[in-house]
Design brief:
Two copies of one chain form a homodimer.
Chain A (H helix, E strand, L loop, with lengths): L14 E2 L9 H7 L9 H18 L5 E5 L3 H12 L5 E5 L3 H12 L3 E5 L9 H11 L3 E5 L1 E2 L4 E2 L3 H10 L3 E5 L11 H4 L3 E3 L13 E5 L1 H8 L12 H8 L11 H17 L1 H21 L15 E5 L6 H12 L1 E2 L1 E2 L8 E5 L7 H17 L6 H11 L1
Parallel strand pairs in A: 1-12, 3-4, 3-5, 5-8, 8-9
Antiparallel strand pairs in A: 2-10, 6-7, 9-10, 11-14, 13-14
Helix pairs in contact in A: 1-10, 2-10, 3-4, 5-6, 10-11, 11-13, 11-14, 12-13, 13-14
Protein name (chains A, B): Alanine--glyoxylate aminotransferase family protein
Cofactor (chains A, B): pyridoxal 5'-phosphate
InterPro entries (chains A, B): Aminotrans_V_dom (IPR000192), PyrdxlP-dep_Trfase (IPR015424), PyrdxlP-dep_Trfase_major (IPR015421), PyrdxlP-dep_Trfase_small (IPR015422), SP_NH2Trfase/AEP_transaminase (IPR024169)
């Protein structure tokens, strides 16, 4: 068996305007390019406390159980779901995007029975439908998505949906993967019981340690489970024994990722969370202005526009693959295609964290305009860039 | 809710001679300090192939299903166990260390019934006992540990134990967390069905993407499961759909960790796997010579000496906490204490990967000798360093 002969790592310098990862601030990479320490080192133990405080800041919560899960976003998602859901629980999940289906699969594997509240892909849930689903199924847990990465749709009335669940004595799990640090979110004020997110979206940290927070009601349900959670690696009572005061060894934390996450969250705190939400609105709003000035159409209605992930209808006369390929090959820009019911129908243009900057949206609007013009679509690239510029 | 005020990251420069993480080569940190790309980027897809080839090289296998799991070592451990074990399977696990107990917990959560083969902590399993356990319980799966991190014990006869399992039509899961890349291991030649490891031990990469390999027999069992694996995040059939030819999105890979793992494995390949095993024997053997010249005693018998993690009896007249604390505070050296049945009885001194170098073991032997001398233990630090030097 010969040694494989692989060359030096030379990744291309992409402008990351897809559904994540977003571009990483050099300070975050610098924090990861430091001496590693042990996961039980006294220095690291202090870092753990700081990361938890920073996570509470971005989630807008005082929740004790607030920690980064040692995996990418789907790991914090499954940690939330697989600990909260006990065999026999009924779990209400949405059908209006890819991540509702993932919730459903995770809840079923945890032993839950799942029921659905429907909405078309690309539209938010309607509170009336949620109310009806509660009346019909009396679920124990309601999971839904604040910012659907697969469709670029914002759920604009999170606190209202949480209130419906609480009035039926159900707990809520809210997916904030594509909203945390980019879209207004108040875990405590809105009463959210469990929320999970990812590092590589609006926090702009390489993926590998993923934010999760749970309130006391969720914690109490987990601590009074009759059966163990089905995944040892994601067992929150054991994780909390490491992240909490006991500092008991559970598994080796991804130390370097935690260093990076700390720096990325520090940058969020320096900017200020509300200013950061406003920046996403402003920069992505300028992108939207450019897109619309080009004659293209947004897929979401205005109250469900998701500034961190813009769903744009693919115009007639060109296919999405061509646009994506030319953006990467000719401009080094990554955006993404639609999924599921929206496959071939939309472009997904992210505007998250360190990627959400004026130079990136100007460059994207210019590049997209040039490509569409070249492909024979009737657009005016110059007007589009001007509209973007005016809105910045 | 105020912004937490946390300062600049300034981790201390530890000499990492504990049970992991080991020190990371600057080239590995450099590879992580590069532009991030998307997890479906064509550039990253090529990187994935290279990482898989490099993993096959260190595991000494041609297994198609060879991939890094998106989490730390316990994630690849649970990926192996929770996919292979189906509800109702009987799983034989060892009782001679911490990680056998972890296997047991994971197998039970996957729905398996567990039975044990016993040996004292600090001793390897006896093949006769394994044979008897097979005769008594007829397990479907036998999990055991090549290199017990909790006790510093090598299982010297891995292929013999695998043969016993195969003669009873059972599959094997071998923990190589503290052996892969540091201790002789031949997954294919020894007939191992499933083996998992970690990045931060003898591979010397920050933890976060963890090696796993499965042969065709294990793959066939998984692909013919009647129930879904209980953890979505670690579902190997779905992971293989992303890492294999389909490249179907499952979850976001920890791109930066994969970059680091690739560089760490490149360094292994440049050194050559056999030369790397020999280096661990030579450098750790010198450490052992120094320890013994000091008058201290190794905990493991000679044929179960684990060069990557040396278990040293705590001498009379001093407690382990004092030694560990003084090593960190006065010398910036991390070693570790005993666990479970060996708590307070042993020191665990790692010698792994980039940490397994002459300067580190000379420094540790010198520091340990000075501390013990200062604490009133009758040792001769100068002789110990001389013995270490002679053996290098």
């Amino acid at each position: 068996m010969e040694e494989p002969n692989v060359g030096e790592l030379k990744p291309p310098e992409r402008v990351l305007l897809g559904p994540g990862p977003s571009n990483v601030h050099p300070r975050v990479l610098g924090a990861m390019n430091t001496s590693i320490v042990g996961h039980l080192d006294p220095y690291f133990v202090d870092i753990m406390d700081e990361v938890q405080d920073l996570l509470r800041y971005v989630f807008r919560t005082d929740n004790e159980w607030t920690l980064p899960v040692s995996g990418t976003g789907s790991a914090s998602m499954e940690a939330g779901i697989s600990n909260l859901v006990e065999p026999g629980d009924t779990v209400l999940v949405p059908s209006n995007g890819y991540f509702g289906a993932r919730m459903e699969s995770m809840a079923q594997r945890a032993g839950g029975e799942t029921v659905r509240v429907d909405a078309p892909w690309g539209e938010p849930l309607d509170a009336v439908d949620v109310q009806e689903a509660f009346n019909e199924h009396q679920p124990d847990i309601f999971g839904f998505v604040q910012a659907e990465t697969s469709t670029g749709t914002l759920q604009p009335d999170v606190s209202e949906l949480v209130d419906i669940a609480h009035s039926h004595d159900a707990l809520t799990i809210v997916d904030t993967v594509t909203s945390l640090g980019g879209v207004e979110l108040h875990v405590d004020d809105w009463g959210i019981d469990v929320s999970y997110s990812a590092a590589q979206k609006c926090i702009s940290c390489p993926p590998g340690a993923s934010p999760l927070t749970l309130n006391d009601d969720a914690m109490d349900k987990i601590l009074s489970r009759e059966t163990e959670p089905r995944c040892w690696y994601l067992d929150l009572a054991e994780l909390e024994d490491y992240w909490g005061d006991n500092r008991s060894y559970h598994h080796t934390a991804p130390v370097t990722n935690i260093f990076g996450l700390r720096e990325a969250l520090r940058i969020v705190a320096e900017e200020g969370i509300e200013e950061r939400w406003n920046r996403h609105l402003r920069v992505s709003g300028a992108l939207k202005s450019g897109i619309e000035a080009m004659g293209l159409e947004m897929n979401s209605r205005d109250d469900a526009w998701l500034p961190t992930l813009n769903a744009v209808r693919v115009p007639d006369g060109v296919d999405d693959d061509t646009i994506l390929r030319r953006l990467v090959e000719e401009y080094n820009i990554e955006i993404s295609a639609g999924l599921g019911d929206l496959e071939g129908e939309i472009l997904r243009i992210g505007c998250m964290g360190h990627s959400a900057r004026a130079q990136n949206v100007l460059y994207l609007v210019d590049a997209l305009g040039e490509i569409l013009d070249d492909e024979g679509v009737d657009v005016s690239p110059g007007d589009a860039v001007a509209a973007t510029s005016d809105a910045l």
